[in-house]
Design goal:
Layout (H helix, E strand, L loop, with lengths): L3 E4 L5 E3 L8 E3 L6 H13 L5 H12 L5 E4 L6 E4 L5 E4 L16
Amino acid sequence: MGSLVFRCDCGFGFRSSTDNRPYAAHVLPDESYDEFSGLVDEAIEKSGPTPRDKGEACMAWRRYRMPMAWQCPSCGTLFVEDANGQRHRFTPAAAEVSKRLLARPD
């Protein structure tokens, strides 16, 4: 299930090593979109003929550092990581704010 990364003030524990978490997101700043898109394009278009070439091209964009965001599914608090990896806490202004802001749309 993954190890505990941090805990929300309400007690919910955010874990690592799990995929497809509806409460976590990679944040791609608009200022970084072109650079990231270029890495993906290069992986697709110029990856080379061998499986090793293709693997190396894919790993180039997977190593791209994106800040993370987490939303507590219990209380709705949003945590956003800055460029230095420091988490910042934001509390919803109203109780009716969705607790699934980062989840895939149904």
